[in-house]
Amino acid sequence: MERRAFLTGSGLTLAASSLNSFALADGKQSELNSNTIAPADWSGLRKLFPLTYDYIHLATFLLASHPKPVADAIAMHRQAFDSNPADYWHEHFMTIDGKIAQAAAQYMGGQGHQIALTDSTTMGLAMVYSGLKLNPDDEIVQTVHDHYSTDLSLQLRAGRTGAKVKRISLYQDPAQVEVEQILSNLKAGISEKTRVVAVTWVHSSTGVKLPIRAMADLIQGINANRTDADQILFCVDGVHGFGIENEDISQLGCDFFIAGTHKWIFGPRGTGLIWAKDSAWQRTNAVIPSFSQSYDVWMGYSSQDQVPIGEHMSPGGFHSFEHRWALPEAFKLHLQLGKANVQSRIHQLNSQTKEGLAQMPHVRLYTPKTPVLSSGLVCFDVNGMHPDEVVKKLHDQGVIMSSTPYRQSYARFAPSLINNEQEIDIALGAIAALAKG
Description:
GO molecular function: transaminase activity
Distance between the termini: 76 Å
Radius of gyration: 23 Å
Strand order of the largest sheet: 2-8-7-6-5-3-4
Keywords: Aminotransferase, Pyridoxal phosphate, Transferase
Domain Aminotransferase class V: 67-403
Cofactor: pyridoxal 5'-phosphate
Helix content: 40-55%
Number of strands: 13
Structural class: alpha/beta
Number of helices: 18
Largest sheet: 7 strands, mixed
Strand content: 5-15%
Protein name: Aminotransferase class V-fold PLP-dependent enzyme
């Protein structure tokens, strides 16, 4: 019995439809394909978002508004699901994850088969760290600067395996951090028992951006003197650099790269990915059974070595497919704008923000001024005010910002592609006025 007939009880043939040939009414696909934008057209980009103009949005990194191409793709898939959910899913679930992974690889580098699809950074971190093959004597090195998702994922894995977690500090004063200081502290934290180094590319606690390539080179130097079994895996939570920095992720030097795609990338809410080297995937196990071609293996129609490793590692089950399947539109939008243009623009707005804050005597800036060690987040304190109070006062004046959700909390701006220089000046003026209040 053929797979389609077995799954649905019908004799219909499974259609290997391409990403751009969904059979939909009313010309929806044609309209979707017409969504284009010129390189570095920032004012045009802003018009693609339904964000209210009643506020200046300096916290969109938390959860992106859907730009029109992404929203249109979501609506297209939703209409098709609502019209005929069984057929629409069965016609695409065996092929579409691979096409989405290919779209991701076109944007980020690497190859599609190396990419697993997830629902968030947290899910990706949990998938990687829960599946790592570790022994009770093994040591995991992480930093004190990581988000709780890394902390707890590693803590849970250590509890199940007996592996030990060592937390190290890469810097004391984020505003004065230097590359050599980070490398020195990392090297000192690695021991003969270290099998995993887990870090965060851009710290949402301070705005510090780690020199991942230099850290990878250091780890590779240590690995050169180790056996295959003792090699250190370098794992990166990359969410706050992904969608900003003009990097080929496969050339960063890390083994695993984990990121949500509903932040700086402007992807559909509830989407994310994991990229890993082929050799790194071999050192982890799947945690949640996948669908797509792994289902084919379970049915007995193919063997596991015929399944792309990323697809095998992608959690199965029923997701909000209209969101996941719309993800390629977010990558396409960024490529149309130009990755180098995106990086330059975000660094420009963040530099404007940092320079303005640095001139205020009642403000302490924590994020490094140099783009080499910072990205799209700017953290600071206002003398005599709790960060949450700063956030509230600016919100009352029409500026949406945030405070860092850490034990040591700071006020935080996140200038992004939907902002302009005038908005930054207004936000800085509001902070300057706090000295008089």
